[in-house]
Design a protein that fits this description.
- The chain is built from 10 helices and 6 strands.
- By secondary structure, the chain is an alpha+beta fold.
- It folds into 3 domains: 135 residues, 2-Layer Sandwich (TATA-Binding Protein); 37 residues; 63 residues.
- Keywords: Membrane, Transmembrane, Transmembrane helix.
Length: 300
């Protein structure tokens, strides 16, 4: 009887063929497990390129594919998690590190020292740790172009974050320099011997430092120099269509007003508030004119 697992998996993807002896890598991991798991373990080969290490209630899985899909040259899969049959067999943990995520991270760190790569894909899985899982994971690898695009986006985001941090540091430095300049230009207060006791009493009561007011104009100039002014967001499609409908209605009721608003929308962009106000004012004016005409007709 198999039980569902919660395992940590890492896929090391190589764009070129790595110089790595898979059997030697298995032996290195076997010796590492023997040092850190005194309760003993069992090494088994599911096939020539998949080896599993059973350590009490844990299983470590190591696999390699020299023909992965998606244009990759090679892929090494590392997985750590509970043994698929630990509950059915009543297995207990005998390893110093019970956390599968840390176990997998240590294995990946060791493999990267022997054969480094820039692309490591991490994921969690509820599937049993066996050779079938390794085959399924390698077959589901994204293409090389997709991984390169994702890597470029991550690098761009990191560069943007670093640039933002640099801009914030420059702003803080500029503000600190401005405050220091203001402090240096402020004349020192001359002590009054006659009011020495009053000054001592006031100093005991006053708990706020006498700081100069910030130079808001200079701060705005610094901010404008460091940050670009964002463009105003355009109105939604629904708001734009509503503004055009109002303008067309105004053209049918009052051609000059409607034409003026329609021209404004083409040149400056749709403004729903302006169209709504013009619609309301025009409606009130038309209603007033009609009421005046009706009153004149009744009186005549």
């Amino acid at each position: 009887m198999r039980t569902s697992t919660d395992s940590t998996i890492a896929l090391l993807v190589y764009p070129t063929e790595p110089d790595l002896n898979f059997a030697r890598l298995v032996r290195e991991i076997d010796r590492h497990i023997a040092r850190h798991c005194p309760g003993g373990h069992r090494l088994s080969w599911d096939c020539n390129d998949v080896a599993s290490f059973d350590v009490g209630s844990h299983r470590l899985l190591l696999g390699r594919s020299d023909t992965p899909p998606g244009g990759h040259a090679s892929c090494i899969a590392l997985a750590a998690g509970p043994h698929p049959d630990s509950l059915a067999l009543g297995l207990e943990g005998t390893c110093d590190e019970p956390d599968s995520r840390r176990i997998c991270a240590r294995l990946v760190e060791g493999v990267l020292k022997l054969c480094p790569t820039q692309t490591v894909l991490w994921q969690q899985s509820n599937a049993p740790l066996d050779a079938t899982l390794i085959d399924d994971l390698i077959e589901a690898l994204p293409s090389r172009s997709v991984l390169e695009d994702a890597t470029a986006k991550v690098a761009a985001a990191a560069e943007e974050q670093a640039a933002r941090a640099e801009r914030e540091a420059r702003i803080r430095a500029a503000v600190a320099a401005k405050m220091a300049e203001a402090d240096s230009q402020r004349p020192a207060a001359q002590p009054d011997p006659a009011s020495g006791m009053a000054a001592d009493a006031a100093a005991a009561v006053n708990d706020r430092p006498d700081l100069p007011a910030p130079d808001l104009v200079a701060l705005r100039r610094v901010r404008a120099a460091l940050y670009e002014t964002p463009d105003a967001p355009r109105p939604t499609v629904q708001a734009r269509l509503t503004a055009h409908a109002f303008n067309c209605t105004l053209m049918a009721v009052s051609l000059p007003i409607g034409a003026a608003l329609f021209t404004y929308s083409l040149l400056r962009g749709e403004d729903l508030k302006l169209s709504s106000r013009a619609m309301a004012v025009t409606g009130i004016a038309v209603a007033a004119l009609k009421a005046k005409g009706m009153a004149a007709g009744l009186l005549s």
